[in-house]
Amino acid sequence: MRGGTTVMEEPALTFAGLLRQLRTEARLTQEELAEAAGLSPRSVSDLERGINRTARKETAVLLADTLGLPGTVAELFVAAARGRGSAQDVVAARQGTALGAFAAAATRGLPRDVASFTGRQADLDRLVEGLETLATGGGVVGICAIGGMAGVGKTTFAVHAAHRLASSFPDGQFYLPLHAHTRGQRPVDPADALSSLLLTAGVAAAQIPPGLEARAARWRDQVAGKKILLLLDDAAGHEQVRPLLPGAAASLVLVTSRRRLAALDDATVISLGTLTPDQAATLLARLAGWAGIHAGDAAVAEIARLCGYLPLAIGMSASLLRHHPAWTAAQLADGLAYARDRLAPTHAANLPVAAAFGLSYADLTPTQRRLFRRLGLVPRPDFDAHAAAALDGVSLDEGRRRLGELCDRHLLTEPTPGRYWLHDLLREHARLLADAADAQRAREAFHHDG
């Protein structure tokens, strides 16, 4: 009774109700589900009526496969069927709202490699050489931190490298996106990541302990003595990555991040830059995929240049050519050359580029955002700490420190000691974000700068 009103509690979802719900959503009768799963109709009926409150593991696995339940959801379904988990957790997992592991989605296997992969041979050779050095030294997990600015192709490179190396890791390859820069989603919590990895590695949901340290220990125990490859994509920082590292010395971890993960001990660091002009033109021709586009054409080279030799921007331009076969490369090059905003050459067709840069910008502190915007107003693409100090009205040491923070997020590069460079596309993006106060400060700074 509440305030004189009788409140009826909603009964908890049972496994019988869950199975009935899933079967109904799949538009199957009990007989059809039983036949597809290789079970007797009586067994399905008894489970749905609650006569049998639990099922054998083999039966539960067959039902999960027939109902098309994905990895984590299937694991939880089997646990619920055996009386070792909650039916409500299965519903929550399917809706993407469960607590814990469902913010992460590890897979046993790698994403698809792309046939259009171009260049990066020196970086691939360096990765392989690092592994060979590790193999001779022994005793530690191989870690390769792959960094670079938004859109430079970190994930594509990591996936390609992982496919090349997969045969050296016969005990399995795992892929886990960490969502540091996924719009509308928080970075994956390390405890949730470990839960997802354990489920994917075959650990029953009921056997996953609570707490970060206990899960990290369970994960290390699960892969002890095995040779696995773990690809962690889009990491927010070393704090997110370190608990996920296996302890097995024969394993390899590839990590991509827009930040430099210098705090990961013994890691081989590969910082990806933009493609060379020839590589960029070749990539554009491969992605465009039709006979009218040739890597040696001047117009193709011009498009690649206007895209800043950045793979993501090149991919957007190639998509325009691929889906508009009446266009010529020269026409697209002219459109890019005269476009007011290089990030939007035609009707928002480049939204992934703008979104990638925007997410990096959103990840900055207010002070870092302000300096980034103002650096876009510097009248030349390279500058030093004096420029940053003048733009923000701070000391030279503080200006140098703030530039270093933007370098750590791959929004700037430092091609020579003390000289910093802002990529053309990022520079254009920063200019678009700048407001009147930023413009006024830039005018004052560079007037006094002489």
Describe this structure in words.
There is one protein chain. With 450 residues, this protein is an alpha/beta fold. 49% of the residues lie in helices and 9% in strands. The protein contains 21 helices and 9 strands. The chain has helices spanning 15-25, 30-37, 41-48, 57-66, 71-81, 87-95, 121-137, 154-165, 190-200, 212-222, 238-241, 277-288, 298-306, 311-323, 329-338, 351-362, 366-375, 385-392, 396-408, 424-433, 436-448, and strands at 107-108, 142-147, 173-177, 229-235, 252-257, 267-271, 382-383, 413-416, 419-421. The strands form 2 sheets. It has a 6-stranded mixed beta sheet, with helices on both faces. It has a 3-stranded antiparallel beta sheet with strand order 7-9-8. The longest helix has 17 residues, at 121-137. It is elongated, with a radius of gyration of 27 Å. The protein starts with 14 loop residues before the first helix and ends with a helix.
